[in-house]
Amino acid sequence: MTADTEVASRAAGRRAGGRGTAPHRPGGPAPRARSWLYLGPATISLAVWVYGPLVFTGVLSFLHWNLVSDHPSWAGLGNYARLVDQPEFPHAAWHTLLYAVGILPFATVVPMALAIMLWKKPGAVSTGYRALLFLPVVLAPVANAIAWQFILDPLQGAANGLLQDAGFGPRNWLGDPATALPVIVLITAAKVVGLNLLLFGAALASLDRRTLEAARLEGATEWETTRFVVVPQLRRTAVLLGLLSLVVVWPWIFTNVAVLTQGGPNGATDNVYYRLYTYAFTFFDAGTASAAAIVISLAFAVLLGAYAVLGRRRADPGPGSGPAGSGPGPAGARPERGRSHASV
Amino acid sequence: MPAFDRWPRLIGRHAVLLLTAAVMLLPLVWALGSSFKPSTTIFDMSPVPLPASLENYRTVFSAFPLWRMLLNTFVTAAGVTALQVLVAVPAAYALTQLTFRGQRFALGLVAVALLVPVQSLIIPAFLMISHLGWRDTYPGLIVPQLSGCALAVVLLRNHLRALPPNLFHAAALDGATAGETLRFVVLPLLRPALSAVVLLVFINTWNEYLWPTLAAPSPKHTTIQAGLALFLNQEGPEYGPLLAASILATVPVVAVYLVASRRIADAFLHAGPG
Amino acid sequence: MTDQMTAVPTDLGSGAGVADPDPDADGLLLDGVVKTYGGARPALDVPRLHVPAGSFTVLVGPSGCGKSTALRVSSGLETPTRGRVLLGGVDVTSTPAAGRGVAMVFQDFALYPHMTVEQNVGFGLRLEARHRPRRGLRGGAGPLNKAEIRRRVTGACELLGLGGLLERRPAQLSGGERQRVGLARAIVRRPRVLLLDEPLSALDAQLRQQARAELVRLHRELGNTVVMVTHDQLEALAMGTHLIVMNGGRVAQAGPPTDVYHRPADPFVATFVGSPPMNIAPMATTDAGRTFDAPGRRVRLDHPVPGLGASGSSTVLLGWRPGDGVIGGPAEADRPSAPGLAVEATADVVEFAGDAVVVHLTGDGMRAAVTVPARGSWPAVGDRVTVTVPAERLHLFDPADGRRLPAVGA
Fold it and tell me: In C, which residues are within 8 Å of A340 by CB distance?
């Protein structure tokens, strides 16, 4: 062994202790330093663009600042107090909850039902439907909002046209505080349904159709098969998609609110995200906006955590959307495999 | 069993699906139709553009930096996708296949990042790119969107976990280092999942609206999504060109979907919770 | 985990392992190895598990007995919680898997699905060439260049009859072919110890028979140490030159197959090895170990069982192999002519198995099986029969600790 390789080998194999007669070879569990090398880029990215900003937001929430001046002043808990004192923020928070509750069925039940319907009859027709229903996801968000603005126009809109033909009076859908929020939910829901339909489809694709046949042989009706065989196996997926949807849906709602109602009428479509944006980029009040951001993050973490825990507990008995393994080869379940890597 | 028994169910199913499709596709159909309407009939509600006109498309191409914006959008989406994948692949690998102290902590770091709402990050991110002089630049559009890499890590990790663990044991016994295992075993096997993640991130970034409006407010430097809003803010909204431009902005993404819908679905095959 | 590994006491000084003083420590030795996965009971707890050099050793036991853990600790894929792993007398406890000169065939074969057969088999050699481009191979066969790799890959594949399949991918292979690719990949680097983790369980029954013989032949040709894990005791008896029966993370018995079969160390080994399993039932003695009685059964011995009185126990576990029983007429039960066991029972189920017939018996709160050659006659269902077993074929175990009591005939 040359001196070079000896040194390199020793450096690489420091943890190998007594090296034995066999020369050190790499492999086996990697030392901690090397593992963090792999994690480094992601960790740094998250530190710089998620955790750093989060801390910065936390600091800002205790300051008065207009985003421009060189001299922010200490506000203490003043920004938080303002959030609570003024009616807008609690109101927006309440409406945010309404949005979340409104969106949830469109993230879970509706796309699941559609996905099962399409899954039961595979073929070109189903593929076509799936593609059609995915299209709202790719339509430019602003265009989508504008299109709905026209369709829901109180005077000339197609929606009222149809309703009048059916004998109902015209309605100002987006101008009426009673209907504005549900309408925004429905408009946003089209996107959520489209995306989650695709993802439920993926979960169904890994599901064993023989379980269906077994249920049918036992005399289950079509509905019973769906309810007691298919749905339980999708429960884990449903929990996950509900969670993910509640994470990704806010930018979509934001666009619709920004284009269609700007939070109105009379705060009916306001929500904490739009409020935060208004504080920061309409009123240039970075302190209050940051306080709002911190409150939102905390509440969001608590609610999603609770949802995840509850969902997981309830979903546990089901076999879950178990991966069907794109992994090749017969991956026989080994009876006494001690998995060395931590699985969380 | 008499065949006519199945008719009610068949009709019922298609009624449900068609109705849903109709409602969901209404805006797209209307936008497509209206983009061909001349300015005189733009407020007509009929989705059929009669008489049809290419006026809006001409306006878009002549009076609007459409190509430039599409290019910006493409560069941004591609850049964000590339960065996120570069960052996420080794992280997902380390979180699945390597054993080290702090692994749970690292996983928690990623999981919590997934739950932090983007909106609580925009003010610091905005200040950072302002400070760096990155407003109206590609780095300003691209780099802060690394905040979304947690999702890519989680999706890739779930895929990696679904691979038979013995493959990695075999590689260790064959003498592969962690890097060699990643390069010669993991990456080839991860390719389908990787392309799926790439497409998801790409579509999502392509359609991002809020960040470009803040990071690149000037028309020459912003993306098409933020650019569309410019049609609303000038003296009197120009709906026709807006719709035409948004149809043009949607075409590339639809093409991507049609090519790759299977793979997008694949990405989630292994995305069980946790 | 990493820290635990470095905490394992290793030889100080040179860093090279020091030969173990134990004279028969060549081969593979797990010395005081304990492996815990966080559960209350260790998955593996062996004061001493020895695989003789050059042997075909089979680790056998029911699922969860620790046999696979023992294999993985030997391979280096797992690090023991406590204890040392010695290979050829050298402590390799903290040597990474690839540096031990061991190779493994996995239960699911774990072939790289994106590589051809040739690439699968040659992967380890190509990595070795990458790591040490100028050095010759272990075994001194000259520099490890492309031609040499190709020569050795082709050689290993030819040996296993994979000659025509070099360009195929795993998905295009049958189960048997995959298994042989896994073997070729394992032997191509000329390991000192070849580890086989249930290598036959993924094959169908017919193929398994054939693969058994191939494995044994391969071992004879290569002459290296082979350690195979299986839960199939018939496989273990048929293939191994050395058997290690495991139970509950411990070694229940180790030795040549014939020894393990004829002199099982405890009731677990006795019932686990052999098919149909050994009949075991408690019996009480009335006269300090000369005669034992239970309803329908009676044992008479020439000498009392030594050590029986010492443990203060008046019962033993009495075992006999179904093949050692001889079916006689109903009258012999009361008065066995020769020392040994006599059982009177009713034939309950009769299984014809080609060469032999397995007769399942039921009696007073008792079940037993006896095997008789199919060439003779055998009882019909419902017949009263008497089975006699000569004294030297009886196995006695202490009911308190399961210890084998000294041979009856001796």
Answer: 1, 77-78
